């Protein structure tokens, strides 16, 4: 991971998730005014396209276009340092001006659709996991987004909150009878395999 994808020196940081009803084109000037105080901007895909008046269907391409436009907002580099557009089953697109963008898969794939019970709170869970991931991954944006995707995976498996218990005398937390770190490692490995496949 390159230095530019780190958030060292950003402390304190502000992660901004726009309120859904404010994600209309008329509110874009208000968002632009707030950009100097926003480190990470994270709308979902529908909100992002609406704010920017992009009428295209939600695809990876339209999300990438939206992220690039958000990074260009503001004057004199006052835009967000990072944009993460949460895109449901498509995954999440994390982008910075310095390094461009990269997709992180949703943890549950289409083959696991039975695991998706209720998406209420998935965005909040994602961003909470992202904030924790920034600490656990020493500010690495991509790694933090892996934690974010895993956090959301636990939220959507049931109605309400995941179950939590201590798995052993060592005090290791289990959520829904699974280890969060196991899921992070599995998602990271999935991406390593995809990158290896693309280059061979």
Automatic annotation (TrEMBL):
Highest taxon in the source lineage: Eukaryota
Residue ranges constituting the Carbohydrate kinase PfkB domain according to the UniProt record: 30-161
Alphabetical list of InterPro entries matching this protein: PfkB_dom, Ribokinase-like
Matching PANTHER family: PROTEIN MAK32 (PTHR47098)
Protein name: Carbohydrate kinase PfkB domain-containing protein
Provenance organism: Scleroderma citrinum Foug A
């Amino acid at each position: 991971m390159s230095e530019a994808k780190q958030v060292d020196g950003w402390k304190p940081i502000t992660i901004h998730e726009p309120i859904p009803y404010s994600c209309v084109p008329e509110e874009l000037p208000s968002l632009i005014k707030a950009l100097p105080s926003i480190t990470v901007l994270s709308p979902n895909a529908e909100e992002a396209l609406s704010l920017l008046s992009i009428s295209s269907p939600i695809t990876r391409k339209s999300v990438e276009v939206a992220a690039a436009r958000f990074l260009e907002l503001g004057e004199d580099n006052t835009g967000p340092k990072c944009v993460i557009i949460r895109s449901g089953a498509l995954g999440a697109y994390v982008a910075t001006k310095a390094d461009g963008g990269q997709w992180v898969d949703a943890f549950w794939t289409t083959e696991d659709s039975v695991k998706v019970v209720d998406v209420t709170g998935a965005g909040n869970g994602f961003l909470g996991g992202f904030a924790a991931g920034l600490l656990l991954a020493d500010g690495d944006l991509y790694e933090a987004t892996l934690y974010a995707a895993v956090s959301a995976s636990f939220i959507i498996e049931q109605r309400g909150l995941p179950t939590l218990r201590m798995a052993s005398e060592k005090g290791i937390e289990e959520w829904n009878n699974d280890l969060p770190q196991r899921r992070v490692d599995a998602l990271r490995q999935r991406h390593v395999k995809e990158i290896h496949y693309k280059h061979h």
